[in-house]
Design brief:
Radius of gyration: 15 Å
Number of helices: 4
Structural class: alpha/beta
């Protein structure tokens, strides 16, 4: 059975750097790479819970975001790594924790698109570090290019 690395991508610069890091690591290990993007319907407090956005549109834009992220991260880097892009609906943290089952390594950026810019570690990265079932690498912004 071949090694598998999972990386979370939300389209932020830090998640792209985490993807680049994971791609290099997968190349070194001869591992496959599962690139995961989770999306959820936006929540508006005080409004009835109805879906104002078409499910197909959300999924298509998520797939486009993920495809672009993979293209950007892999540009100029010859690699024989098998890349499995996965788009799922739901909590990013839960999707990553679920994907960690059976993985050899889980990679995330330290922060994503969350709203608290002063945090060193975002909420998704924090949850993943505490609940993943495999080792986790958090790619910090300061070291993202190494």
């Amino acid at each position: 059975m071949s090694a598998r690395i999972v990386v979370g991508v939300d389209g932020s610069g830090e998640s792209i750097e985490a993807l680049r890091w994971a791609l290099r690591e997968a190349t070194l290990r001869g591992a496959s790479l599962r690139v995961l993007h989770a999306w959820a319907y936006p929540v508006a407090v005080g409004f009835p819970t109805m879906r104002l956005v078409d499910l197909g549109v959300m999924k298509e834009s998520s797939e486009a975001l993920l495809a672009e992220a993979v293209r950007n991260a892999a540009a100029g880097t010859p690699s024989t790594v098998s890349i499995d892009p996965v788009v799922t609906e739901g909590s990013a943290a839960q999707a990553l924790v679920d994907a960690s089952e059976g993985a050899d390594l889980l990679v995330v950026g330290a922060r994503g698109h969350g709203g608290f810019l002063g945090l060193v570690l975002g909420s998704t990265a924090s949850q993943v570090v505490h609940h993943a079932t495999c080792p986790v690498v958090v790619v910090p912004k300061a070291n993202a290019a190494t």
